[in-house]
Amino acid sequence: MAITGVLRPGHMQLKVLDLDEAVEFYSNVVGLVQTGRDATRAYFKGWDERDHHSLILRDAGEAGMDFYGFKVADDATLATLEADLKNYGVTTERVPAGDLLETGERVRFQIPSGHLIELSSQKTDVGNGMGYINPPPWNEAAERGIAPIRMDHALLYGPDIEKVQALFVDVLGFYLVEHILLEDGKTDLAIWLSCSTKAHDIALVRNEEPGKLHHTAFLLDSWEKVLRAADLMSMNRVTIDMGPTRHGVTRGTTIYAFDNSGNRFETFCGGYQSYPDWEPLTWTWDEVGPAVFYHDRKLNPAFLGVYT
Ligand code: M3P
Ligand code: FE
């Protein structure tokens, strides 16, 4: 098995203003599949995800993120990474199995940017509805609403992103794929980190205020589906922040829009696949516009300034 350690983003718990409204939005407009509900939360997955859930919506009376979790290979890996984090000086806590539906114990810790990150190794495989023997390529869940394949990545806003990078690289086995430099030519404004061959599994933008969410991204498999997503957003009167367009960073095609709580989400079609031995790509301050929006070549004011 070549992929070891941290495998992929596992879950994001998002705070919403009104759970019923959010459930309706993420089911019918975003087109995620609802897989569960508990006292305060609703659970969703993309149509081609197999684990019980990736997005959890919590009735919180406000917007933002509670935590972002990664799936690790197995229980032994979870215990090893927990010990490695402690040796690195990170305080960790075990959240009991079953706290999230169909999910085993989670190791939770705070990173220097103020966000809560989790690792877990067990989540019930509920399948993608197409079975494991002679499966069809897609089913009706792949066409309802925007219908992303999976939750893809998150972009977090907070301070001390170089410390976050060190922790993810030195302890969790991630690598830097791309970064944008500030005017001084030395300090990073933003970093894109991968634990896989994806161009990013997590990204961070430097920001004074800790613990903030810029966006959660959902994967589509073609530029045409990005266009279809934009059509559906307009048909459903969804507020689009930017797009459809392309990122210079990651070369991904993209739309940013807001859910009814004001949380930004991205419908993203990945640009290229990356490898841990590749030299990271650098974007300089004078090219920050095209780094983020390749066609407009400038940032829109809401894009950097609005987060939850
Ligand atoms: C992405 C992406 C920023 C750039 C964001 C890029 C906030 O969201 O998926 O590559 O500068
Ligand atoms: Fe993104």
What's the CATH architecture of the largest domain?
Roll
* Helix and strand composition category: alpha/beta
The amount of beta strand, in percent, is 25-35%
Residue stretches low in confidence (pLDDT < 50, at least 5 long) are: none
Question: Which of globular, elongated, flat, extended, rod-shaped describes the shape?
Answer: globular
User: What's the CATH H-level superfamily name of the largest domain?
Assistant: 2,3-Dihydroxybiphenyl 1,2-Dioxygenase, domain 1
The CATH class assignment of the largest domain is Alpha Beta
CATH topology of the largest domain: 2,3-Dihydroxybiphenyl 1,2-Dioxygenase, domain 1
- The figure for the number of domains is 2
| Amino- and carboxy-terminal Cα gap | 38 Å
Mean pLDDT: 96
Order of secondary-structure elements = EHEEEEHEEEEHEEEEHEEEEHH
How would you characterize the largest beta sheet?
9 strands, mixed
Number of strands: 17
Describe this structure in words.
With 308 residues, this protein is an alpha/beta fold. The chain has two domains: 6-143, 2,3-Dihydroxybiphenyl 1,2-Dioxygenase, domain 1 (Roll), CATH 3.10.180.10; 150-305, Roll (2,3-Dihydroxybiphenyl 1,2-Dioxygenase, domain 1), CATH 3.10.180. The chain has helices at 19-29, 75-87, 161-170, 223-235, 288-292, 301-305; strands at 6-16, 33-37, 41-45, 55-59, 64-72, 92-95, 106-110, 116-120, 150-158, 175-181, 188-194, 202-206, 212-219, 240-246, 253-258, 264-269, 281-283. It has a nine-stranded mixed β-sheet with strand order 14-15-16-13-9-12-11-10-17. The protein has an eight-stranded mixed β-sheet with strand order 2-3-4-1-5-8-7-6, with helices on one face. The protein is globular and about 50 Å long. The mean pLDDT is 96. The structure holds (2E,4E)-2-hydroxy-6-oxohepta-2,4-dienoic acid (M3P) and fe (iii) ion. The site of (2E,4E)-2-hydroxy-6-oxohepta-2,4-dienoic acid has 12 residues, from strand 13 and strand 16.
